[in-house]
Amino acid sequence: MHHLMHRHLGKAVAGAAIALTGTAAMVAVTLPSDAGAAGGTDPRGRPAAAAAPGPGRDQGPPPPGVVERPPVEGERGRGRDPLTDDELRRARDLALPRTPRGAARNVTGRPGPEPLTTDLAELTPAETGLADPPRRATVTFYDYRDDSYLTKTVNLTTSTVESADARHGVQPPPSRAEAVEAARLLIAAPLGSGLRQDYRDATGRDLTGPDPLSVTGFVYRGRAEGDAPGALGDCGEHRCIRLFTKVKNGRWIDTRRFVIDLSARTVAHLG
Predict the structure, then answer these.
(1) Helix axes 176-188, 193-203, angle to 10 degrees
(2) What secondary structure letter does DSSP report for 131?
(3) Among the residues of the chain, which ranges form H helices?
(4) With 80 as the cut, is the pLDDT of residue 214 above it?
(5) What separation in angstroms does the CA of 130 have from each of 155, 158, 160?
(6) Beta-carbon-side half-sphere exposure of residue 147 (alpha carbons within 13 Å)
(7) Structural domains of the chain in order of their starting residue, each with its CATH number
(8) How crowded is residue 128: how many other Cβ atoms within 10 Å of its Cβ?
(9) Name one GO molecular function term (predicted).
(10) What is the pLDDT of residues 190-209, one digit of tens each?
């Protein structure tokens, strides 16, 4: 019997402790801001003494917060540091083709290839143990003049181009600029009437350009993804984009069945 009483008493005490813990958590959240001041009670239920003046009391509101400037970024990172802003600019400048700019075209048809990505390049096995290895960047472009995917590796330490490659039929993920241009073409096309109407239904305003939309593009590779009827047969060799479309601070509009051929600047519908 003595043993059983100890067991039951232990369970009761444990249950009370859990209940008390929960109550304490609630009290900690719901206590008024003047709890513990004169006229209140301390945690044991006894009257609490008036708070004594001390450092920081009754001295008015705290001073406003101060936003510190970010640390000054150097021109050059070290080791595997991310590329600095200066290195990003230098890498793109070094990687741009030295042929006349008119020989390449970006997504809007202007001179120069469309910039895609600039990333820190991997080290060679012999360089991995060096205290200060060379800084390299891999820069990619898309040239709409001949639908080629350009990749260049530039050495930022020596300011030289170490390798260059151009391939056709390779379709990396689109840049934000390409997604925006695809939306612009879709809005202006006859097939974009549904998008324009959905936008008007959602906002009460006319849609005349991509600025009020948040768009994300993903590549459509044509026959590599299945049936590619009619105008979609060139996708994969051409730069073709589909879109996720959303009204900024508003609802989604389904545009996934539209394919925008950025190379031919045409719009088609799947299915």
Answers:
(1) 100
(2) S
(3) 2-30, 85-95, 176-188, 193-203
(4) yes
(5) 16, 17, 20
(6) 16
(7) 85-168 (3.10.450), 176-269 (no CATH)
(8) 10
(9) quinone binding
(10) 999 999 999 999 999 999 99
Q: Quick one: 92 exposed, middle or buried, by C-beta within 10 A (0-12, 13-18, 19+)? A: middle
Which is it for the CA torsion 45, 51, 55, 57, positive or negative? positive
CA angle 52, 58, 61 (to 5 degrees): 145
3 state SS of 244: strand
Calculate the CA dihedral of residues 224, 218, 104, 106 and round it to 10 degrees.
Answer: 150
For 176, the 3-state DSSP assignment is helix
pLDDT of 177:
97
Which tokens is 108 given?
Answer: 């809007």
* Nearest residue to 264 (alpha-carbon basis) of 229, 225, 228, 238: 238
Lowest mean per-residue pLDDT among 4-18, 82-96, 111-125? 4-18
SS3 225: helix
Whole-prediction pTM = 0.70
